[in-house]
Amino acid sequence: MKATATRYRRLRDARATAALVSALGAALLLGGCGEATKLPPAADTGPRPQLVEPVKTLLPTVNIAPAVGWAQGQMPVPAAGLAVTPLATGLSHPRWVTVLPNGDVLVAESNAPPRPDEGKGIKGWAMKLVMGRAGAGVPSANRITLLRDADGDGVAETRSVLLENLNSPFGMVLVDDKLYVANTDAVIEFAYTPGMSRIDGPGRRLTELPAGTRNHHWTKSLIASPDGSKLYATVGSNSNIAENGLAEEEGRAAIWEIDRASGNKRLYATGLRNPNGMAWTADGVLWTVVNERDELGSDLVPDYLTSVRDGGFYGWPWSYYGGNVDTRVEPARPEMVTRALVPAYALGAHVAPLGLAAAGYGPLPAALGGAPAVIPAAPGAVQGMFVGLHGSWNRRPHAGYKVVYVPFSGAKPNGQPVDVLTGFVNAQGNAMGRPVGVAVDARGGLLVADDVGNAVWRVTAK
Questions:
Q1: What 3-state DSSP class applies to 279?
Q2: Which of 110, 131, 203, 302 might form a disulfide with 190, Cβ 3.0–4.6 angstroms?
Q3: CA 301 to chain centroid
Q4: pLDDT tens digit string along 159-214?
Q5: In 3D, which of 344, 265, 241, 348 has the Cα closest to residue 299?
Q6: How far is it, in rounded angstroms, from Cα 337 to Cα 343?
């Protein structure tokens, strides 16, 4: 009888604990339910966004678009004058795309690695549930797939596994006869021959990247310098606002410059909460898109596109958009706030920009209001940037979930973003797809990796 009573008490206590966790999780999921954006449309975008006062709520605003995928025959919606076709479907959480000189397309099929120290506690548990509903809970395929459209009809008739058994790969870049892959914890170098469809062997570990058992922002993007001597790798922060301590942020919220010959590296720019895609302009300036901090309300803080200054500091975690102090961060560092650079261009609050691709002079930018394709331009000249906006979770109503084009004027972004590809969220508020990496292919089409729709879309001018 005593043993039975003990078992009953343990069962009762377990059920009570489960009920408490469920209740607190539900409270978090509904947190800030009365908080919503108050800014008029477009006020938080462009070169001079409107910044409001932070909104403090007991629990963060959580407003996800549950991932459902595309039904048969459904596709995203292109802007007027554009067309969209699937380059490939049936992929496994495609996150990033890279176009090789011969026209082959590499797709990183990837998701987060094991992170035992990430998301502990009730809030962490609830956020894992939220991210799972948003489509981020699938296992990582850990491979790079090669797509080949030899006949040029916009559909890849050949698909092969180029690399497998990787560690949450993301960024990829080819320099001469070497292919570099940014795993979540290191940059790996592989020998490459044009036209090959399979690479075997572990490759050479060129340099380590910050990772670990928390690894909050796990994606690492990669780009080569114009002369090919350097690589640049993005590393996001290990938290929202350094709430786990600054020791956890060592080498993070930054872009690293890596010497391709030796693997030696140095911090190139810091204070970038979660930088992702990168691109060069013709004047040799590096640009990136950055996911800013959460839990300051639906209108703060605008994510952004910015040029990256060697040695530049962009505020995180102590401030945002220059000298706007985040009072949640302790200890305060006013001397760091004074150093903080103002980003070049706001993309909107919580839109989650990931993909970035420079647009030269061609039919697609022309169809979006740019200069005609016939205008002669210097090699590498940039008329604008394509940005993949993965979509919000900490904002009401939803924002992002589309691909936009940011026009440039005089080597700087100017004007409002132009929609390129929309329709990723249906009338019921569910996400049929979520855009991530973007790249311009050999024939001027825009490729878009869709990690919820498990497809790579190709956008062209009609």
A1: strand
A2: 203
A3: 16
A4: 999 999 999 999 999 999 999 999 999 999 999 999 999 999 889 999 999 999 99
A5: 348
A6: 14
Task: Grade residue 29 by pLDDT with cuts at 50, 70 and 90.
Answer: very low
73 located within any domain: yes
- Answer yes or no: is 10 within a domain: no
Question: Residue 89 — φ and ψ, nearest 5°?
Answer: -130, 175
Predicted confidence (pLDDT) per residue in 109-123, tens digit: 999 999 999 877 656
| Structure-token match 């006949």, residue found | 151
pTM for the model: 0.91
3-class DSSP state of 267: strand
Distance CA 375, CA 379 (A): 12
Provide the 8-state DSSP code for 134.
I
From CA 351, how far away is CA 328, in angstroms rounded? 22
Domain carrying residue 227: 31-461
Considering its fold, how many domains does the chain have in total? Answer: 1
Rounded CA gap, 237 and 225, in Å?
23
- How confident is residue 131, by pLDDT bands cut at 50, 70 and 90? low
Q: Which two tokens stand for residue 406?
A: 């940011």
CATH number, residue 140: 2.120.10.30
Examine residue 23 and state whether it is found in any structural domain, yes or no.
no
Does residue 21 lie within any of the structural domains? no
